[in-house]
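Anyone? Bumping this.
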Amino acid sequence: MTAPVDSAGTVAPELGTHELSVRLGGRRVLDRVSTRFTPGWTAIVGPNGAGKSTLLRTLAGLLTPDGGHVELQAPGRVAQPLRSLRPGARSRHIAWLAQQGDTSGELTVRETVALGRIAHLGLLGAPGPADVAAVARAMAQTECEAWAGRPLSALSGGERQRVLLARVLATEAPVLLLDEPTTHLDAPHQVALARLFRELACTHTVVTVLHDLPVALHADRLLLLRDGRVQAAGAPSLPAVQQAVMDAFGGAVHIRCASDGTPRVELALDVAGPGTRPSTARHARSH
Amino acid sequence: MMRAITTARDTDAATPAGGADVPAVMPLPGLARPQRRLLAALAGVLLLGLLAGLATGTQGLSPLALWADLHSEQAGLVIGQIRAPRTLGAVLAGGLLGLAGALAQGVFRNPLADPYLLGSAAGAALGVVLVLAGAAFAGAQISLATVAWLERAGLTGAAFIGAVTGVAMTLLLARGALHTLRLLLAGVVVTVLLGAVSDLVTVASPDALRGKQAFLLGSTGYLDWPALGLLTGGLAAALGLALRRARVLDALTLGEDSAASLGLDVPRERLALVLLMAAATALAVSQAGLVAFVGLVAPHLVRRHAPGTHCWLLAASAAMGAALLLVADVLARALIAPQELPVGVVTAVVGGVYLFALLRRRGLGPA
């Protein structure tokens, strides 16, 4: 994979983790995770409770790890520990989308998306043409211009999700950390979003937590987490990665390569059959 | 900021022909139509209320009596020294309470939050009770005039210090302003504890009870020109500082983690907002007593009739609080003239009825 380059010729920064451990409520959620998130699109997958969202939150600097650290490496520069960055500087590099949109919904769509510009404006600065343009572009990318003046409370869950994603895109941060961005979206918009991620992957370091394996298989790289550990990492077309994913989901999914070599995923829909049992058992154990 | 962000509401898809109906001369650029309408209504109410406040005296709200007052020898005293300060004081104290309410509801992201939640009310009441009890105790030794002066000057100071101390105790107990639930629980604990101490003091010194009662019910009767200066300065400073942080409150509507991911130092910002709310509340309470419901209802009314970003909400809630307390004050003075109702009773009845109606009609969600 060649390093993606944006129009200005700069390469997006990498995020690396070193022996990252996080405990939440006495439970070890991440266990010495060492990996790198390179420019392009990485999809973090894994069963419930594997530590996917926790990893993303730690990468975003929202959780302080109990052990190890996260570092940000801009191309051609020395890697900086994430901790050493001030919140304002961090947010110009890294944007994060929450798993559950937790908004009270009083702001309009445009006002919400405009919040993405805070890192550039500070608390007092007035938005300039660049800010207005970034907001408009972000709304166009997620197709939510049509409701620009409506309050968020008047939108459906999927529409809201697209607005919140636009808020993240409006930051123009080169590293995008998206926690289940496809939640609540209908099939056409899931496809549109997968296309958008492919497009963004050319210029950004995109990391998504995804439960949608069909969407995740379009990523450049899968990172399989299980019980807080990295189980497998690599291109979705690698048989070893596919096998690890199938194992992690206890046979509830099948990944097969189509004749053109692209991996396809199928749910094992034999609901009453033995295929689903190991998954439930594992799920119970992981809690 | 308000300009660029709120114009979004003007270009709502619902407006015909995409903003073609924007008037040629926009009186307030950047404000959406409901916001302009609310502002005009508030300006009207404030103007009428100020006139009514100057005209309301011992004979109730009476233009004839006002005419007579203006031609009497005591016109300057009655209107200039009594009615004008308390009318303007109601506006300023109401503004502070409305602003504090909008800050509380923004910080706690809860439409039912009010500025008294964090122990400021109980702290102010305790401060007042201590001064009253102290004055009653000292009254045995020193002259009555000295006691009266002490009471007057000491009450506002003690109420202010008490309110600030109450909130400080809450913040200490909650170890900062980061966790909403912990903060609210600490507020309950502090309120109960300080309330118990107040009760203990009033049991020991029954004289303090009446003064405490008057204070708890709220009154604009103590306001004079020096107090107005203090309130004006306080309101201007609080509004200025609050508007500087309006964008923080907007970001907090997305949730605290999202706000933090936008580069805000959320614990520090929240602490600053809570301290600002406490100072505004303490100042209003020290001058006008524990006026109920204005801080709760004012931001509610603004959000319901003209929602917007916090830059708008904070400023409009202050104006709404001013209008509410002004109208309540005029009513309190006019309804049973020549006697007066405590203004807090009027706001409590009006506010209570409003919330009751709201609950019955639509529930209490935002707008």
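Late reply, but here is one note on the structure posted above: Confidence is low (pLDDT under 50) at residues 1-8, 276-287 of chain A.
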